[in-house]
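Check out a protein:
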Amino acid sequence: MAMNSDVPHLLFGGSFSAIIPPHSVDVSEIREIPDNQEVFAHSNTDQSIVIELLEHQNHVPDQEAARYHFADIASSNDVSGMDSTEILSVEPVGSDQITLQDPSSAWLLSGRQQVAKFNEQARNTVTIHLALFRLPQYSTDILITFNDPTVISPFSSSVGGSSVQSGGMSASAAPHWTLQQFRTTVQSFRLLDPTIFS
Protein backbone atom coordinates (compact mmCIF):
# COMPACT_ATOMS: atom_id res chain seq x y z
CA MET A 1 0.00 0.00 0.00
CA ALA A 2 1.45 3.40 -0.99
CA MET A 3 1.85 5.89 1.84
CA ASN A 4 1.18 9.59 2.35
CA SER A 5 4.48 11.33 1.60
CA ASP A 6 3.84 14.45 3.71
CA VAL A 7 3.44 12.63 7.01
CA PRO A 8 6.48 11.17 8.82
CA HIS A 9 6.34 7.38 8.63
CA LEU A 10 7.06 5.40 11.82
CA LEU A 11 10.06 3.08 11.47
CA PHE A 12 11.40 0.16 13.49
CA GLY A 13 8.24 -0.23 15.55
CA GLY A 14 7.92 3.50 16.21
CA SER A 15 11.51 4.06 17.41
CA PHE A 16 12.28 6.37 14.46
CA SER A 17 10.33 8.38 11.92
CA ALA A 18 11.05 9.90 8.50
CA ILE A 19 9.22 11.32 5.50
CA ILE A 20 9.23 8.61 2.82
CA PRO A 21 8.79 9.64 -0.85
CA PRO A 22 5.38 9.20 -2.53
CA HIS A 23 4.44 6.00 -4.39
CA SER A 24 6.39 3.95 -1.80
CA VAL A 25 5.63 0.35 -1.00
CA ASP A 26 6.77 -1.10 2.34
CA VAL A 27 8.67 -4.20 1.16
CA SER A 28 8.11 -5.93 4.52
CA GLU A 29 4.47 -6.32 3.46
CA ILE A 30 5.66 -8.38 0.47
CA ARG A 31 8.59 -10.38 1.82
CA GLU A 32 10.59 -10.89 4.99
CA ILE A 33 13.09 -8.12 5.80
CA PRO A 34 15.88 -8.36 8.44
CA ASP A 35 14.97 -6.74 11.77
CA ASN A 36 17.69 -4.11 11.35
CA GLN A 37 16.26 -2.86 8.03
CA GLU A 38 13.32 -0.90 6.66
CA VAL A 39 12.98 -1.17 2.87
CA PHE A 40 10.74 0.92 0.63
CA ALA A 41 10.36 0.32 -3.10
CA HIS A 42 8.94 2.67 -5.71
CA SER A 43 5.58 1.30 -6.84
CA ASN A 44 6.54 1.04 -10.53
CA THR A 45 10.29 1.57 -10.94
CA ASP A 46 13.29 -0.34 -9.53
CA GLN A 47 14.17 2.55 -7.20
CA SER A 48 14.37 1.75 -3.49
CA ILE A 49 15.30 3.30 -0.15
CA VAL A 50 16.86 1.13 2.55
CA ILE A 51 17.29 2.26 6.17
CA GLU A 52 19.67 0.10 8.20
CA LEU A 53 20.82 0.01 11.81
CA LEU A 54 24.38 -1.32 11.71
CA GLU A 55 27.12 -1.96 14.25
CA HIS A 56 29.28 1.11 14.76
CA GLN A 57 32.66 0.50 13.13
CA ASN A 58 35.06 1.81 15.79
CA HIS A 59 38.12 1.10 13.64
CA VAL A 60 36.88 3.30 10.76
CA PRO A 61 37.48 7.07 11.13
CA ASP A 62 34.48 9.31 10.47
CA GLN A 63 35.86 10.72 7.21
CA GLU A 64 36.29 7.18 5.79
CA ALA A 65 33.10 5.64 7.17
CA ALA A 66 30.79 6.44 4.22
CA ARG A 67 33.34 4.90 1.82
CA TYR A 68 33.58 1.85 4.09
CA HIS A 69 29.82 1.29 3.98
CA PHE A 70 29.69 1.93 0.21
CA ALA A 71 32.32 -0.80 -0.25
CA ASP A 72 30.31 -3.07 2.05
CA ILE A 73 27.21 -2.52 -0.14
CA ALA A 74 29.31 -3.38 -3.20
CA SER A 75 30.37 -6.62 -1.52
CA SER A 76 26.73 -7.44 -0.63
CA ASN A 77 25.75 -6.72 -4.26
CA ASP A 78 28.52 -9.07 -5.43
CA VAL A 79 30.20 -6.17 -7.22
CA SER A 80 33.88 -6.76 -7.94
CA GLY A 81 36.53 -4.96 -9.96
CA MET A 82 37.53 -1.31 -10.10
CA ASP A 83 35.38 -0.72 -13.20
CA SER A 84 32.23 -1.89 -11.39
CA THR A 85 32.17 0.69 -8.63
CA GLU A 86 32.85 4.44 -8.54
CA ILE A 87 32.56 7.08 -5.82
CA LEU A 88 31.43 10.43 -7.22
CA SER A 89 31.35 12.57 -4.06
CA VAL A 90 31.56 12.44 -0.26
CA GLU A 91 30.53 15.40 1.87
CA PRO A 92 29.91 16.03 5.57
CA VAL A 93 26.41 17.06 6.62
CA GLY A 94 26.03 19.86 9.17
CA SER A 95 23.84 19.41 12.25
CA ASP A 96 21.68 22.31 11.01
CA GLN A 97 20.67 20.20 7.98
CA ILE A 98 19.34 17.18 9.89
CA THR A 99 16.74 16.39 12.53
CA LEU A 100 18.46 13.36 14.11
CA GLN A 101 19.75 14.23 17.57
CA ASP A 102 23.45 13.98 18.46
CA PRO A 103 25.19 11.98 15.75
CA SER A 104 28.96 12.30 16.15
CA SER A 105 29.03 13.00 12.41
CA ALA A 106 26.83 12.68 9.32
CA TRP A 107 27.88 12.13 5.71
CA LEU A 108 26.44 11.99 2.20
CA LEU A 109 28.06 9.86 -0.50
CA SER A 110 27.09 9.45 -4.14
CA GLY A 111 28.48 6.68 -6.30
CA ARG A 112 27.72 4.08 -8.96
CA GLN A 113 27.82 0.31 -8.98
CA GLN A 114 27.29 -2.32 -11.68
CA VAL A 115 24.72 -4.55 -9.99
CA ALA A 116 23.10 -7.80 -11.11
CA LYS A 117 19.49 -8.32 -10.04
CA PHE A 118 18.93 -11.54 -8.10
CA ASN A 119 21.23 -14.19 -9.64
CA GLU A 120 21.29 -12.79 -13.17
CA GLN A 121 24.41 -12.32 -15.29
CA ALA A 122 23.18 -9.00 -16.72
CA ARG A 123 24.38 -5.97 -14.73
CA ASN A 124 22.53 -2.68 -14.34
CA THR A 125 24.19 0.64 -13.53
CA VAL A 126 22.79 1.82 -10.21
CA THR A 127 23.48 5.28 -8.80
CA ILE A 128 23.68 4.95 -5.03
CA HIS A 129 23.12 7.92 -2.72
CA LEU A 130 24.06 7.05 0.82
CA ALA A 131 23.54 8.99 4.06
CA LEU A 132 25.44 7.87 7.14
CA PHE A 133 24.72 8.88 10.74
CA ARG A 134 27.36 7.79 13.26
CA LEU A 135 26.08 7.18 16.80
CA PRO A 136 28.99 5.72 18.81
CA GLN A 137 27.12 6.40 22.05
CA TYR A 138 24.67 3.70 20.91
CA SER A 139 27.35 1.56 19.15
CA THR A 140 25.39 2.16 15.94
CA ASP A 141 25.93 3.44 12.41
CA ILE A 142 22.65 4.31 10.65
CA LEU A 143 22.67 4.03 6.88
CA ILE A 144 19.98 5.41 4.55
CA THR A 145 20.57 4.29 0.96
CA PHE A 146 18.76 5.42 -2.19
CA ASN A 147 19.23 2.92 -5.04
CA ASP A 148 18.49 4.61 -8.36
CA PRO A 149 19.01 2.40 -11.47
CA THR A 150 20.18 4.63 -14.33
CA VAL A 151 21.09 2.12 -17.06
CA ILE A 152 19.17 -1.15 -17.35
CA SER A 153 20.78 -4.02 -19.25
CA PRO A 154 18.50 -5.28 -22.07
CA PHE A 155 19.04 -8.77 -20.62
CA SER A 156 17.88 -7.85 -17.10
CA SER A 157 14.54 -8.92 -15.67
CA SER A 158 14.06 -5.22 -14.84
CA VAL A 159 13.34 -4.52 -18.52
CA GLY A 160 9.64 -3.83 -18.77
CA GLY A 161 9.31 -3.46 -15.01
CA SER A 162 11.04 -0.10 -15.04
CA SER A 163 10.75 2.95 -17.24
CA VAL A 164 14.42 3.86 -16.73
CA GLN A 165 15.84 2.22 -19.84
CA SER A 166 13.56 4.15 -22.18
CA GLY A 167 14.23 7.43 -20.39
CA GLY A 168 10.51 8.11 -20.18
CA MET A 169 7.34 6.94 -18.53
CA SER A 170 3.76 6.28 -19.41
CA ALA A 171 1.14 8.85 -18.51
CA SER A 172 -0.18 6.65 -15.71
CA ALA A 173 3.26 5.90 -14.24
CA ALA A 174 4.24 7.52 -10.96
CA PRO A 175 7.15 9.97 -11.33
CA HIS A 176 10.60 8.76 -10.40
CA TRP A 177 11.97 9.67 -7.00
CA THR A 178 14.46 12.53 -7.02
CA LEU A 179 17.63 13.22 -5.08
CA GLN A 180 15.78 16.06 -3.32
CA GLN A 181 13.12 13.62 -2.09
CA PHE A 182 15.89 11.38 -0.73
CA ARG A 183 17.43 14.39 1.00
CA THR A 184 14.03 15.13 2.58
CA THR A 185 13.98 11.57 3.96
CA VAL A 186 17.49 12.06 5.38
CA GLN A 187 16.74 15.51 6.81
CA SER A 188 13.47 14.37 8.43
CA PHE A 189 14.89 11.15 9.95
CA ARG A 190 14.61 11.33 13.74
CA LEU A 191 14.96 9.15 16.82
CA LEU A 192 11.77 8.85 18.88
CA ASP A 193 12.68 6.06 21.35
CA PRO A 194 16.35 5.49 22.29
CA THR A 195 15.44 2.27 24.15
CA ILE A 196 15.72 0.55 20.74
CA PHE A 197 19.48 0.57 21.36
CA SER A 198 19.32 -1.07 24.80
The longest helix spans residues 62-76. The radius of gyration is 17 Å. The mean pLDDT is 86.
